[in-house]
Amino acid sequence: RRFTGWVDIELTEKGKSEAEHAGQLIKELNIKFDAYFASTLKRATNSLDIILKVLNEKNAQVNKTSKLNERNYGNLTSLNKDEIIKKYGSEQVKIWRRSYDIRPPIMGTDHPYKNKIDSSSSSESLKDTCERVLPYYKEKIEPLISVKKNVLIVFHGNSCRALLMK
């Protein structure tokens, strides 16, 4: 229940279990991949590592990029969603989370993660996330799909939403 965004947190036990389950489903369906993509955040790269282990893919080349990272939640980063709702109201939080072009408040200079996040922006709307994800997709992933290659992308809710909008 936190706005994790670009904070590079580890997978939870539930996340590890879900990644292993995803790997098992892929294995049972006998799906083979020609290319693998992941964000640079640990929770995505570790999920992919677990999947690759289940698939016994020891030499898979993984394309990691911050272009697939989660949306940067700015000053909301690391804060509990329920506490933010109490402070600003559910309508305002809904606007920050679900609107297309409204950014959350920028990360203040006193924010505990200010110097721990390697991001070119201090806050992103979904539009900003689209403008980061879609050019990468068009350049690196879409050409593979257009020649019928199977591609596995392990990334995050908002970067996935950006791609799904396309």
Explain the overall architecture.
The protein is mainly alpha-helical and 166 residues long. The protein contains six helices and three strands; from the N terminus they run H-E-H-E-H-H-H-E-H. It has helices spanning 13-28, 42-54, 81-88, 90-98, 126-146, 157-165, and strands spanning 35-38, 62-64, 151-154. It has a three-stranded parallel sheet. It is globular. It starts with 12 loop residues before the first helix and ends with a helix. The model has no long low-confidence stretch (mean pLDDT 94).
A few lines on this structure:
By secondary structure, the chain is mostly helical.
Question: Hey, roughly how much beta strand do the residues contain?
Answer: 5-15%
Q: Give unreliable regions as ranges.
A: none
Order of helices and strands: HEHEHHHEH
Chain-averaged pLDDT: 94
CA radius of gyration is 17 Å
Distance between the termini: 27 Å
Instruction: Give the helix/strand class.
Output: mainly alpha
Count of DSSP E strands? 3
Question: Helical stretch count?
Answer: 6
Please summarize the sheet with the most strands: 3 strands, parallel
- Major β-sheet strand ordering: 2-1-3
**Oligomeric description of these chains:** single chain
Helicity, in percent? 40-55%
Gross morphology = globular
